From TrEMBL:
Pfam families: AAA_29, SbcC_Walker_B. Residues 610-631 are annotated as: Disordered. It comes from Sanguibacter hominis ATCC BAA-789. The keyword Coiled coil applies. It comes from the Bacteria. Keywords: Coiled coil. This is ATP-binding protein. Residues 368-395, 715-749 form a coiled coil.
Amino acid sequence: MSQSLFGLIPTASTGQQWVARSMQLINWGGYHGFHEVAFASTATLLSGGSGTGKSTLLDAYIALTMSHTTPFNGASNGAASGRARGREQRNVLSYARGKLDEARVAGTSSSRDAVLRGDGTDTWSAIAMTWADQVGQTFTAVRAYYVPAAATRNDECTLVRATTDSAFDLRSLEPFATGRFPRGPLQERLGLALHDTDIAFTTRLHATLGIGAAGDGAKAMGLLARIQAGQQITTVDALYKSMVLEEPETLAKAQEAIDHFDELSEVREEMLTAQRQLEVLSPIVGLRQRVEAAREQLEVVSTLGVERASERTTPFAHWHDSRRLELARAQEVANRRAHAQAEERKVGLDAQILVTEREHEEVKDNQRRNGGDEIARLEREIAALEDALGDTEVRHARFEQHRAVVGVPVTSKSEFEALRRTAAAFVDSRDARERELADAVYEARAAQAEAVRGLETLDREKASLAVRRGNVAAEDHQARCLLAQAAGLTPDELPFVAELLDVRAEHEPWREAIGLALGGFATTLLVDADHLTAFRRAINDVDLRRRLRFEGVRTGLPVVEQADRSRLDGRLDVKHGPFTGWLTDRLARQFAYVCVDDPADLGKHAKALTRTGQTNDGSRGAHGGRGRPSVLGFSNERRLAQIDEERREATVAVAERRRDVEDAEAAARAFTDQFAAYQAIGGFAWDEIDVRGATRRVAERRERFDELAAGSDVLRALREDEQRLAARLKDLRTQSSRAAVEMERLETAWGTLTDEVDELSDGLAELEDAGVAATDVQVTLLDDRLAASGWDGGDLRAFTSAVAAMRADLVHAHELAAHDLQSAQDTLARTFERFVEMWPNPNLGTDPDDSYDDFRRILGEIEHQRMYSLRERWSRAISRLSGRDLTMLDTAIEQAVADIRARMEPVNEILSVLPFHDDAHRLRITATVTEAHDITTFRRELRALAKDVPDDATPVERERRYARMAKLLARIRPDSPERRRLVDVREHVRISAECVDLEGNHVSVYDHIAGKSGGESQELIAFIVGAALRYQLGDADAERPRYAPVFLDEAFIKADSRFAGRAVGAWRGLGFQLIIGAPLDKVSALEPHVDLVLQAVKDEVGRSRVQWVAAS
């Protein structure tokens, strides 16, 4: 029978138990060479002074049986920190070489280890432990290390992991150490089973030694490691949580939820990025349509040649001449028809005049026979006057044709005489007038050229600014580029001061004033002072028409920003870079202007500046120079926007100047017609065209004739007949005269038309021979435009006016199309530049034409593929996170609390059969849920978000849900101080121990260990941890644990003999084999309760050994 504290355990029991029989060491720490330490099957005390090697033996046990991530004992690493077994702590390399101390290398600040072995040479080390069960079976585990002299990490060593189902002499490895433990001989000659990985090795140990239930030996070994570490714990709660409870699954579930949320965030960010890209690129289709429409309009108008008024070899000229020829020929036919009708009308009228004249003569003869010679005389005078009236009417009609050309109304002799004087002066001033008109044409053309140059200047400036970010003049930039190229620098490495300064947004109204105050300093180039000599040498032969100032400055100086916003330098932002420190210092020293709104305040400061740019420098000052573009700024976007506005105004000005040229040229062409008209007007006399005067004289003679005829009834009757015939004759003559005038006019017009038809026909023939002709599309366009102008098919003069108006409209449309094209292309380019700046891609250009297809393809992919795919992924991800991950986290938290209580049941079952203090009492572990308000609200929000997302949820609802998830999960991220409190369910319960009687009635509670005596606390720890270890080892229902060894380092250091005995008895009563490490002053308290006492000692050179002291 085998005696235990709580009863007899049958030696023949079928419950197998493995106890540690012995440990073998070769070259481990201070244990130089071979050492073997035997253990009692019950309890062994390992004592010794500080640093003699107690913890070294216990660390050997950890190195042999546990994972490489398990830290060595705190007694040997208490002053170190860092990764387990890292360079900062005791590790396999330091143990294998037998590290003694560190010593400084002579003459250096570095140090090196003082070691027992392996100093500049290879060495090796090995550990083995043999276990035995109650029927005599043995099992040995071996780890061996071959350590090269240059090794600094464990993975640079040769590692052997081996097991054997028998005892093993570790010294048998020595012949194989020099060969770095070849695999074949170890297996064949020594009979060792080799394991390639820690997992395979520990799996074999756990399976053979019965460590852990259902193959879960890692948890049991982890608990053994925590027990061996001997942590100082003050409460039962902390004891149970640190020793017994592993990290709950809730932390892993929380991390899974966070990982999936981060994936969701990535999808969301991709979706938002795609949305931003869509917003940036969505206008490009409309802009491209504007570009194509503008180009089509430009193509149509440009191919017509309407804007080239002086050219006669354009499709527009062909259409114009064709339509004018058609109109001229139609008018020619109409002219001949009208001439024939007028001629026919005149012949008929002349015949009627002859008949009426005979009748009139007969009546007058009768009058003479009845009235005498006086009537005959009056009749002759009247006839002469009527002939003169007809001539006057003809001359007046001719005069009216010329007067209509000059457009001066004439209703009296004085107005006629004034017109004649004007005509004489006009004819006399022909040369001067022609020079005046020529000067007007020249001035109009000069103004047009100036406007075109202004537009071209803006275009050149825009082109220059488009390829850089600064605002300095293009000539300065080009000169700077030449200097930079000669010096082997980039333009950015040779900045202008202006490019490093910008006016703060809140002080934008001061931009012009600040630029004026800085003056030429703003266009000074800055050169690194260290490279100034080389720079001067490199640029000396560069031929520059533009003179640039440069200054060598120190780089990397400390930056002292001006906080006073009333000063000029306080209203500037300085671009951070190598020149920033120097520039802030120069601004503070040289340009310390105080900005004042009232010029009366200028004298109140040593240096001051007004908003209009006036400066005060003591007795000196400066003013003026406003209106020039500012050169300050990190970016030229503001200037580019100004240029666009100025270009629009300049384009309008160019169009206006072009119309001025056309008007001046039209006035010059009209001068010839006016000169001919004025010259003809000078040949008329007033009496020759005074129709009213001639009419009055005829009326006076007729009145006299009527008076004579009224004296006789016969004469009165004859007079009435004569008046009737005279009136008819007058009317016929008038009509005949008008017909003659019309015939003459038509004849003259026909001659002009004939000449024009011939000229137009010849011109069209030449155009067609030269291949110049308007296409059907162009003809239709121009015909429609002409009809839209309101022309309804009038004469050639109306056609000329209508065409001029239509041509002006087309030129204006051309200008608008050109402006719209440029505007749309500029907007496209800026859109592409913005896209590339926000999402850099070396394969994408920014040319509005060359790169459009690439960006259109990207837009199409976003619209039709990426956005749909990302929205689908977003919906699935947020649904999965809600329906799966958050639900699993909530369930895991719920389950983990239940698991803590469930795991207490087998521990309490073990404790229920172990007497605590005496046979009438037992120890019981209890758990109380202590969820605080923050945990409760967290769980409530978690359950709310764990509900499935409705399929019909709107994007806004999903986004709102995402924001709630982000807020919730931010509280449980690894860097959150709330993480453990919220998801580590160990924080949700309070663990305590209570003493109960055999009926389970409460007797007393054990909450704080620190309030107990050393022995009482160790006894309490032994009961709680020992019972948990029995459960963890998978032996809760067995009479004894299958794996018995428990190593305790620095244990029972506060216990007296009685309570130490009770604590040791508790462990032994649970069936465990104890190996206790304790200092020398605790030997007397522990010695009565152990069966073997060993002592570690160390000699003067640092070599340790273990010697036997007492045995039971």
